[in-house]
């Protein structure tokens, strides 16, 4: 364990090395902040040190980080919320944001969340006791998965996730040592979720694990589709029939742009299906302050609502979250402002509506623009961005480039995105980080940059793709 | 799996029940927010509904929650920090707290933390790349433990923790399925850490697991001792000899009250021991915005510094923390203010020093008062509260009470604390939640209440203990 070095000192092998680290940690992958982003940060540093690059700035289109992309914070959340702030502070220990809150979250915030959900779902009742405030939606999702994981070998918990998926899911499942069950979204039908594909994935998985949960992201990340009411009903029926715990990631619930599309919450549809379903199907729904028109990612605010959860399990959950004491109180306060926005007659109302409408309209335009421009490029085809904050176009990568990537031990779309970053300063996430059908390649690009910047960005992507295709043909 | 109910509807067994939940979750225990605190919350509700109780208010002396206890936030952290706030915002994406930061934390904050550590440790160098900002110290501690856990059966990772301990450690180890190795602090010698006891615990544990890490809390929680420089040196030597990863929980580094006591950071001592140690011993040190004179718990700010960590492991760590995107940005900003306080000549300096000194002096007085009053009670003996924020007195519980508790399936000190809560409204945490030598009983009480309230509280504790002892004698 120790050896003498040249100068006669004892050198001890490290306790913690890559060979002795928790093996589940090694399996974790999270492409949204992977090697491409690390290189982008280096490039920014190099630029700031005066190194010459073929571009003047790095554009981080890899992540749904609205404020970093220049979206102005909604004024209400930052300045106009004094009377609400007083009410929130009244609920804080010592009337200070610096005090711990209840582990489940501040009571009055959970009450406001419950009323928000009731309004959103046309009166379907919501019990504040079913609301848990979280550190962003990610925290809630990981916590729920943690509860679900058990068993060994063929009875190990399996969790169904869409492919493409948001890599928080695969990362959490890897860390928990659970079995990831892939069901593929149908790219040809605008990334729709088809029940026969769910059934196929489930039936195959039952041979080697114990499938217990089905995760849905609606509106979709990275794929931007918005599920129809019919589709949600079918999914709920499927979950009921197959006895699966439903996890509905609904953080983009305000981000719906396409004509004819509408956000339907899983909870509302569940309750409209009658007591056969609404009394039995277990559902967790997740929301966040980070997305929608707010984009307040840095505050790490969020909540989850739990429907039909067993009481003893809920007690275990409450105990589990208490170990981390409480979600950040500023994030809880911000969540409260989100679910309790200005009402007609209140001083901030007009400005709030103006800013919210402007933000969402701009996103809708940018969604359309992105789809249109990308579809003019030969070798790129992009589904409509019906909702959320990303386009996920399919790209054709020439054989020669695939070969060169493979020789380098890289995924072809990683190779493509790394080259784009080096040549244009544009930071995207390769489709391989989200999962995709074998032999297909994609990238995820956020639609968040301001319109003028987005146009330039899309032109650069177009130009790069053409050059890349030529170079490798 | 399904059965017909009386009204003919199909009833499905739940997917997630107490029998099918993740078994590691069931093992998690966290007494600081356990049944006593749940009952305290109920009692508060009952009081507010006008129910008659033998007390007018519930005093939550269970947790180190300074602001909730009436400690005024330090003005600088809330009002006077404009120029620093501008600098922090300059480092934020889109100059907004609402943007995600780097997963490791904002660069400029990590630089300020590094300079703070250098000042604290008399010039021992600190590299900002070794600093990871965290969501409170708890987050960093759990993340480090996660990296360390591997192996099965007799090669499963074991982690040494003090008994009594802060139950975050036992909870995290239970959840990770690691082996908890208890070493006992010496109550007779003011909760000192004795090396022979470390050796005993380690030697025994080597028979059934693979001990890889040693956790130290200094100043101690719940025990309030402050380790001497000599003791820290001995611990480092022990860790080096036995090849253990050192985890130093130093969140109370400003909370030292007793004459002759001084805080020594593990890092400083390590570097003073020369390169044989400073080049090899792996150390993680944790700090937080929640304790010391700040008491800003609700912001969930913190950092960890990693010494001699393997580079590949660091890359894994960076990847792992990126899955949660970033620690809350308001907490990062507050951490920056803590490590970068007003300097002589700056407008806030005088007031900051006044407030900080007043807060720490008041704590020192309350530490002394608590020890003195508790030691006047027959059947209670309390070590000096040298540091941190709690007293952890030993209590004598009469045989008859032990018997009644056992019949109820309760730990005797849980029985004692629950009775105290019901009769006096005082919420303490039973010693059994922290671990203690068999047959001994304790409780943890924070010294945070304002002096006048603390006196009343201590008198009530005294009175209760006398009554309880009489009742069960």
Automatic annotation (TrEMBL), chains A, B:
- SUPFAM superfamilies associated with the record: PLP-dependent transferases
Quote the subunit structure annotation.
Homodimer.
Query: Domain named Aminotransferase class I/classII large: which ranges?
Result: 94-460
Per its UniProt record, what InterPro entries does this chain match?
A: ALAT1/2-like, Aminotransferase_I/II_large, PyrdxlP-dep_Trfase, PyrdxlP-dep_Trfase_major, PyrdxlP-dep_Trfase_small
Give the enzyme's main class according to its UniProt record, as a single word.
transferase
According to its UniProt record, in which pathway does this protein act? Answer: Amino-acid degradation; L-alanine degradation via transaminase pathway; pyruvate from L-alanine: step 1/1
Catalysed reactions, as listed in the record: L-alanine + 2-oxoglutarate = pyruvate + L-glutamate
Cofactor(s) it depends on: pyridoxal 5'-phosphate
Family note: Belongs to the class-I pyridoxal-phosphate-dependent aminotransferase family. Alanine aminotransferase subfamily.
What keywords appear on the UniProt entry? Answer: Aminotransferase, Pyridoxal phosphate, Transferase
As recorded in UniProt, its EC number(s) are 2.6.1.2
Q: Which GO terms describe its molecular function?
A: L-alanine:2-oxoglutarate aminotransferase activity; pyridoxal phosphate binding
**Protein's name according to its UniProt entry:** alanine transaminase
């Amino acid at each position: 364990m120790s050896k003498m070095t040249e100068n006669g000192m004892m050198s001890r092998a490290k306790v913690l090395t890559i060979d002795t680290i928790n093996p589940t940690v090694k399996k974790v992958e999270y492409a949204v902040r992977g090697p491409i982003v690390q290189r982008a940060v280096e490039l920014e540093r190099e630029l700031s040190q005066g190194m010459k690059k073929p571009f003047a700035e790095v554009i981080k289109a890899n992540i749904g980080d609205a404020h970093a992309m220049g979206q102005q914070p909604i004024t209400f959340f930052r300045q106009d919320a004094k009377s609400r702030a007083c009410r929130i502070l009244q609920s804080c220990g010592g009337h200070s944001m610096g005090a711990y809150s209840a582990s489940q979250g501040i009571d009055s915030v959970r009450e406001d969340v419950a009323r928000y959900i009731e309004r959103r779902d046309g009166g379907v009742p919501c019990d504040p006791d079913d609301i848990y405030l979280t550190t962003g939606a990610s925290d809630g999702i990981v916590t729920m998965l943690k509860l679900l994981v058990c068993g060994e070998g063929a009875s190990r918990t399996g969790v169904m996730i869409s492919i493409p998926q948001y890599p928080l899911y695969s990362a959490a499942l890897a860390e928990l040592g659970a079995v990831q069950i892939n069901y593929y979204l149908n790219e040809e039908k605008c990334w729709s979720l088809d029940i026969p594909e769910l059934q196929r994935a489930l039936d195959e998985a039952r041979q080697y694990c114990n499938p217990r949960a089905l995760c849905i992201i609606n509106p979709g990340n990275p794929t931007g589709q918005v599920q129809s009411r019919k589709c949600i009903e079918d999914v709920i029926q499927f979950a009921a029939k197959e006895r699966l715990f439903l996890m509905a990631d609904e953080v983009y619930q305000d981000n719906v742009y396409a004509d004819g599309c509408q956000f339907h919450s899983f909870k509302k549809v569940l309750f409209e299906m009658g007591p056969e379903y609404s009394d039995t199907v277990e559902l967790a729904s997740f929301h966040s302050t980070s997305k929608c028109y707010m984009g307040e990612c840095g505050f790490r605010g969020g909540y989850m609502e739990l429907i039909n959860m067993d009481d003893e399990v809920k007690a275990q959950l409450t105990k589990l979250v208490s170990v981390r004491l409480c979600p950040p109180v500023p994030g809880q306060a911000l969540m409260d402002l989100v679910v309790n926005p200005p009402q007609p007659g209140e001083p901030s109302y007009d400005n709030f509506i103006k800013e919210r409408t402007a933000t969402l309209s701009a996103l809708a335009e940018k969604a359309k623009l992105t789809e249109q421009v990308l579809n003019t490029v030969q070798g790129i085809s992009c589904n409509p961005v019906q909702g959320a904050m990303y386009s996920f176009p399919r790209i054709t990568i020439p054989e020669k480039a695939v070969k060169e990537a493979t020789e380098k031990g890289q995924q072809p779309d990683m190779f493509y995105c790394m080259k784009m970053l080096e040549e244009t300063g544009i930071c995207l996430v390769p489709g391989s980080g989200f999962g995709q059908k074998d032999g297909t390649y994609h990238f995820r690009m956020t639609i968040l940059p301001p319109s003028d910047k987005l146009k330039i960005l899309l032109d650069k992507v177009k130009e790069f793709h053409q050059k890349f295709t030529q170079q490798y043909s």
